Amino acid sequence: MSSLNLAQETMYNENQKIVIVNNNKVIYKNDGFGIKPLYLAYMKIRDQMKEASCSDRVIGKAAAWIYREADIKELYCEVITTRAKNLLIDNGIKLIFVEEVEFIENRDKTGMCPVETLAKDEEDFENLLVNIEKFLVEKGLL
C-alpha cells in the first residue's frame, strides 16, 4: 500500500480529520476541526513532514501554504479551494481531491471561513502563522 493510500484509509477508517504518513508509517493523526490539527502538526513535527504523504478533509489557502512550507510530497483531500489547489500544484505537490470550491465556508455557512479570510491576501508565511495562532488563542483552542 502506498503512503498516500495509508493516509487516506487511516483518515476514513479512524474518522480522523488529518493524517500524515512518512516512510509508510502514520506519524500524526488528529480528529480536531479547522486549521488547528494541521497547525499543531506543523509546529510539532514540521521536520518529519518533509516528503510526507498527507490526507486532510478540507484545504484552503492557509492549509495549502502550511503543507507547502512543510515540503510534503503528496496530498489527498475531500474539498479544496482553487487558490489552494494552484498553490500546491505550482509547487510540485501531487494532489488528489474530490471537490474544488471557490472558498471554504464558515461553520454557519454565512460567508468565508475566518482562517480563509486571514490567509486570503497574506503574502508572508510567518505573519500567517502568527495570525493563525492569535485566532486559535482568541477562540480558546490553544
Task: Name the features.
single chain, 5-stranded mixed β-sheet, alpha/beta, 142 residues
Would you kindly provide a written description of the structure presented here, covering whatever features stand out?
The chain is α/β, with parallel strands linked by helices and 142 residues long. Helix content is 42%, strand content 24%. It is built from 6 helices and 5 strands. The protein has helices at residues 3-13, 36-45, 61-69, 82-90, 114-120, 125-138; strands at residues 18-22, 25-30, 53-59, 74-81, 94-101. It has a 5-stranded mixed sheet. Strand 1 and strand 2 (25-30) form a beta hairpin. Helix 3 packs parallel to helix 4. The radius of gyration is 14 Å and the shape is globular. The termini are far apart.
Task: Give a brief rundown of this model.
By secondary structure, this protein is α/β, with parallel strands linked by helices.
Radius of gyration: 14 Å
Helix fraction bin: 40-55%
SSE topology string: HEEHEHEHEHH
How large is the count of helical segments? 6
End-to-end distance, in Å? Answer: 35 Å
Topology overview:
Layout: H1 3-13, E1 18-22, E2 25-30, H2 36-45, E3 53-59, H3 61-69, E4 74-81, H4 82-90, E5 94-101, H5 114-120, H6 125-138
Parallel strand pairs: 3-4, 4-5
Antiparallel strand pairs: 1-2, 1-3
